[in-house]
Every structure is written in C-alpha cells, then in structure tokens.
Task: inverse folding
C-alpha cells in the first residue's frame, strides 16, 4: 500500500536519510524504531510531504505522492499524528475535530459517522467537547491528536511517538486504541521509543540507525533478536 523506495533526505547540505526503503502492506501495523536522531521523524515528515526527498520515490496505492503537497497527501488518505500532539491550546476539542476534517479524503465514513465513531472510541472527548485543548490531561491530548487525524478519513495513519510523556495507564489505553484501530482496518506506521510496545503491536519492524535501515524483520523475530534486546530493550 505504502512504498518508500531509496529516499535520500537532507536538511540544507546535511544528509540525514541515506537511501531508505520500507513497505507497509494494507491492514498491517509496521513499526520504525531506532535511537534518538536516527531519522524516524524525518522519514514520517517526508512521507507526509512536509519534507521532500532529494532522490528516491514514495508511492501510495501505486501512485507517486513524493511530489505532492502535504494537503494532497492527506486527501489521498495518508495522515501523520505529529510528535508532541501539536494541538492549539485555546481551541476546543470540537474545533480540533472540525479542523481535522478540512482536508479529509472523500469516500469512506461520512463526517457524522466519523464523529460518532470517534466519540464511541474516546467518550471523554464527547464529554469535553467544549473544553479547550490546553486544559486536557496528556492522555486526553494524545486521544485528541489521534481523533483529529481520524477526522481526515485516513487509510494509513502514521503515529510519531504517541506514548511520549504518557502515564503508564494511558500507555496501556493507547496500546488498546492502536489495536482496535487496526482491527477496524486501519493501516498503521508507528514510530515509538518504547520498542517493546511497538514490536508487540506491529507485525513487521524496521530498525533505523543513523539514516539507514539496519534490520528489517517480523516483529516477533526482532523482539527475540539479541541486538535489539541489548540496544533497545535494555535486556
Ligand atoms: P527523535 O526521536 O529524537 O526525534 P528521530 O529518529 O526522529 O529522533 P530526526 O528527528 O528525524 O530523528 O532527526 C534526524 C537527524 O536530523 C538528527 O541528527 C537531527 O539532529 C537532524 N535534524 C532534525 N530536524 C532537523 C532540522 N529541522 N534541521 C536540521 N537538522 C535536523
């Protein structure tokens, strides 16, 4: 469904992604793990069109998206939930959901169906509809960031460090949310510092080291890999 082929990405003259390739099949959860600064966020931003690769290609459902603007990529169904949520503290929960729908992909669930689906999945967001985002707890803000992304009617959701700063109980809830989204048919590309969590959720994983893929395997195989255990699981 999503195919990244041999992309090179630079910030100015500094190359940070050196020919990276990855694939995400429809209905899968794929994770991209790696240490700080390896280039995970840069990869997601390149897929979502905020950065342009200097070479290589990115296609979604067989169509090149790497020359498209970010809003066109969203309208094609590829949506990134950014690291740190990036909410507007003075806007209400309801306003964020409306905003998420502005560039929505056509087809799939209607606006009303998406609202109902989100309220079913995150009842607290319905209760807090009129509340400003800045007054929500960290866990609620993460739910809102995901819900805003879902309002764009994605087919492929990219999550960047969703567990960052969450209390353990909220991390468990996040894990359930990602599972149920996937069970509902959502394709997911997950970037996550908690490598154990990421590899539990994913069927396939890529390990990124300084801008290149070092390992690519079934998630179960990676969980048992001694290199992954020492470098990322602290075992
Ligand atoms: P983290 O989990 O810490 O965010 P990451 O794997 O997502 O790490 P990136 O944020 O993609 O890594 O960063 C990859 C490299 O690019 C790093 O060396 C970083 O310093 C550099 N970098 C990131 N953003 C910029 C930028 N806007 N300008 C210049 N260099 C950048």
Result:
């Amino acid at each position: 469904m999503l195919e990244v082929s041999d992309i090179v990405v630079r910030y100015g003259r500094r190359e940070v992604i050196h020919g990276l390739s990855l694939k995400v099949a429809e209905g899968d959860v794929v994770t991209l793990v790696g240490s700080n600064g390896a280039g995970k966020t840069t990869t997601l931003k390149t897929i979502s069109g905020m950065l342009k690769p200097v070479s290589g290609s990115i296609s979604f459902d067989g169509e090149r998206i790497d020359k498209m603007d970010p809003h066109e990529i969203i309208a094609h169904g590829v949506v990134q939930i950014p690291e740190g949520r990036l909410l507007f503290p003075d806007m209400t929960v309801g306003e964020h959901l409306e905003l998420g729908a502005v560039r929505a992909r056509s087809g799939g669930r209607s606006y009303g169906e998406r609202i109902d689906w989100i309220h079913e999945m995150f009842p607290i967001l319905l209760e807090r509809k009129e509340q400003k985002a800045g007054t929500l707890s960290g866990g609620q803000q993460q739910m809102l960031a995901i819900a805003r992304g879902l309002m764009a009617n994605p087919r492929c959701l990219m999550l960047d460090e969703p567990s960052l700063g969450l209390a353990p109980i909220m991390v468990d809830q996040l894990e359930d949310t990602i599972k149920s989204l996937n069970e509902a048919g959502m394709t997911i590309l997950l970037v996550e510092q908690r490598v154990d969590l990421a590899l539990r959720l994913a069927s396939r994983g890529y390990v990124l080291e300084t801008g290149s893929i070092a390992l690519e395997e079934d998630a179960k195989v990676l969980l048992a890999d001694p290199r992954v255990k020492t470098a990322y699981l602290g075992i």
